[in-house]
Amino acid sequence: MTPTPNPASTSKSVGASNWHINDISHRTRLAEDIALLQSNFEKLPPSPETTTGPEKQKGKAPMYKKKETAPVEVRPPPRGLPPHLDPRLPLNAMVAPHSQTDNFPPRTVNHMGLDERLAKEIRDFEEAEFHLKQSKLLGNAIQTANSQFRPENVLKADGSNFGNWYRNLAEVACPNLKGPRFFFEECHNSTYEKIGRAVLIAGID
User: Fold this and answer.
1) pTM recorded for the entire structure
2) Domain annotation covers residue 129
3) Where do the record's region annotations for Disordered lie (predicted)?
4) How many domains does the chain have?
């Protein structure tokens, strides 16, 4: 007579085998999921943040950080300054732009007019100086000549002392004029002519 199997032991072995099968299938599915995730991760493009090395960074435009500007201190303008000197305005705004086209060329000084005016003043001064010196010399010469003409030799109206007058004229003309015959020869010098005329007038009564 064959012994009947123990139902309790049979149920235990069946339960253990079922648990083992479920555990194997669970591990298999888990491994497949991990392999699928790994393959999908490898297919993704590399991230620029995690990519390192000169070969991977070649051709990539450099990224610049925006420069932070320091806050500008705004000061109130001093009292009494005109608006164009407001220190709150930038310096470039205070500089007038240079004009590229100059429609008005610089004025040239009329040196010709200045030279002509100066030359005229010099001529006028020299002329005045000449006349003043001439008048002074003439006055001194006439005064000296008349002082040498004696009163008794002044020509009388009837001409009775003509000889004495003539001799006195020669005496006066010799030191003061060109020579003793100055009054009886043609004169071409205006200065001597003025002196001789004054002496003749003073020597006639």
Assistant:
1) 0.38
2) yes
3) 1-22, 39-84
4) 1
